[in-house]
TrEMBL record:
Residues 3-68 form the Polymerase/histidinol phosphatase N-terminal domain. This is Metal-dependent phosphoesterase. One of its GO terms (molecular function) is 5'-3' DNA exonuclease activity. Signal peptide: none annotated. It comes from Cellulomonas uda. It holds the Pfam family PHP. It comes from the Bacteria. The lineage of its organism: Bacteria, Bacillati, Actinomycetota, Actinomycetes, Micrococcales. InterPro entries: PHP_dom, PHP_domain, Pol/His_phosphatase_N, Pol/histidinol_Pase-like.
């Protein structure tokens, strides 16, 4: 069984539509794919139709933006009730704040490089969640940088001069909102220290007490040392260990299925989640 529990579509910052993403996952030989767009569930319905058509199992989820004492944190929510009012309101607030934030980043960038807000909107297309990757795409289209990675290397980096943070719920509150919505909360790439600041060990105790179910240990942004650290923490706190590709289509080098989750872990997620897995 090849199970990839982390992937993005054009509903957020992936480059393929939800249906195209699911078709690509089937072609890549995956048995199970989780759709985890940033801060939205809008891709769930088209992805479910495509999953039935292509004979692949779909886990419907969301990558929820959050913050822990100023550190940006991503929480994978699996199989929640997509209509739960408190979580819906949180995601809506974050999506709204992301637009204001991206506009502000464009204002700062425009002082030094050719970019307008219209350029970003053109790249965002039908995305309901605007992110730095769309700003990166506008920079690529305008010839400022060759690709998304080059944009993140300097202009868009979290500690760079053009970066603006956006509102996101406190991580423990986000975990509680996911659990209240019947979802299974897994901390996404918690040891991705090359991207920006990461949380210390105590944070996992706090989030486990709030209902966190697992840690995404197997992720390309984790060094062997981080994987070892996170596995030990998961052991200590009785958390599930997951893996995923964090595939974004053509926008990143990540390939579908490059990191996987064990079937017995998926069985626990399925058992705990409120929404059905689509088969
Ligand atoms: P945002 O949530 O708008 O701040 O942007 C985060 C998104 O940017 C995530 O989906 C990441 O995949 C992507 N991202 C973050 N850091 C990098 C990086 N160093 N290189 C390429 N993409 C990145
Ligand atoms: Zn993304
Ligand atoms: Fe993430
Ligand atoms: Fe992601």
């Amino acid at each position: 069984m090849r199970i990839d529990l982390h992937a993005h579509s054009s509903a957020s910052d992936g480059t393929q539509s939800p249906a195209e993403l699911v078709a690509a996952a089937a072609r890549a030989g995956l048995d199970v794919l989780a759709l985890t767009d940033h801060d939205t569930t809008v891709g769930w319905a088209p992805a479910a139709r495509a999953a039935r058509e292509h004979g692949i199992t779909l886990v419907r989820g969301t990558e929820v933006s959050a913050r822990w004492r100023g550190v940006s944190v991503h929480l994978l929510s699996y199989l929640q009730d997509p209509d739960h009012p408190a979580l819906v309101a949180e995601l809506e607030a974050t999506r709204h704040a992301r637009v204001t934030r991206a506009e502000r980043m464009v204002e700062l960038l425009a002082v030094d490089v050719p970019i307008t807000w219209a350029d970003v909107l053109a790249q965002a297309g039908d995305a309901v969640t605007v992110g730095r990757p769309h700003v990166a795409d506008a920079l690529v289209a305008n010839g400022v940088v060759p690709d998304r990675d080059a944009a993140f290397a300097h202009l868009l980096r979290a500690d760079g001069p053009y970066h603006v943070p956006h509102y996101a719920p406190a991580a423990a509150d986000a975990v509680r909102a996911i659990v209240a919505a019947g979802g299974v909360a897994v901390f996404a790439h918690p040891g991705a220290d090359a991207r920006g600041r990461i949380v210390p060990d105590e944070t996992f105790d706090e989030l486990a007490a709030a209902g966190l179910a697992g840690l995404e240990v197997d992720h390309r942004d984790h060094s062997p040392a981080q994987r070892e650290r996170l596995r030990a923490i998961a052991d200590r706190l009785g958390l599930l260990v997951t893996g995923g590709s964090d595939y974004h289509g053509a926008g990143k080098v990540n390939e579908l299925g490059e990191n996987l989750t064990r079937p017995e872990i998926l069985a626990v997620i399925e058992e705990r989640g409120t929404s059905e897995v689509v088969r």
